[in-house]
Amino acid sequence: MLIFVKTDKMKRIFIIALFLLTALTCRAQDDFMSTVRVSKASPAIFEKMAEALEPYKDEPASDMMVRCAKQFLGTEYVAGTLEIEPEQLCINMDKTDCILFVEMCLAMVQTVKSDEPTFENFCRNTQNLRYAGGTVDGYASRNHYTSSWIKQGQENGIFTEVSKEIGGAQLDQHFDFMSTHLDSYKQLKDNPGMVVKIMQTEKALNKDDYYYLPQDNITALTKGIREGDIICFVTPVAGLDIGHVAIAIKQGGQMHFIHASTKAMKVVIDSQTIADYVLTHKSAKGVRVVRIN
Known about the structure:
Elements: H1 2-33, E1 37-38, H2 42-53, H3 61-71, E2 76-77, E3 90-91, E4 95-96, H4 98-113, H5 119-130, H6 146-155, E5 159-161, E6 169-171, H7 177-180, H8 192-205, E7 210-214, H9 218-221, E8 230-234, E9 242-251, E10 254-261, E11 266-269, H10 274-280, E12 286-292
Parallel strand pairs: 1-3, 2-4
Antiparallel strand pairs: 5-12, 6-7, 7-12, 8-9, 8-12, 9-10, 10-11
């Protein structure tokens, strides 16, 4: 009889503990999603994309990047979708710019390959890519410079920059554009405290070495690029690193790229090869190449 009572009591304690744990987990999930700004169309788009990608989840991530990117063909290009105050994670799968397109594809691939292919997990993966340490803590916590985005992704084992390994040359790179062009950033103008935080980011980035595939040897060096690689077009603008971002895709035996185009105002597979784009656009003096692990 005593054994029965103890066992019954233990069962009740276990059930209560399980209930509390479930409640806390649900509360944590609800709390997280309450901090996310989600466009009305995004959840349905996510479900459609996840369903399309699920049969290929065991493929290499680079192959899935290309598949995912193709699913977003025709998505409208819209700039400035993150410029909401106060700063919060924004999810807009129905409109995008160049870096957000690449980030969205990568977060989709991470999510579909995970044990929890849910919309909430997609949002969490996006936050972990977009914000320093995966935490939204004001405007300065966003990875504004693409180099910050790359550095964090490498540290988290998500991808590896291979610019040097495939024959790239050292890049003379300096960061100070944001802190010296305050009128271009409404969150920085008249906010000296935020500017100090941006300057700290720039100082940290200035300590690192950078490599790229330069324009004068771009045709030969792009042979080292693989489908699914993230292509970062290096800008000649002083103090800034990357002017455009895309995903490499092979067309007719040549390496082109899929991107959110400001010319087409939507996601397209560009008719130019990566090399031809660099050779014909003054806005690009070469590329940096990031390979998904």
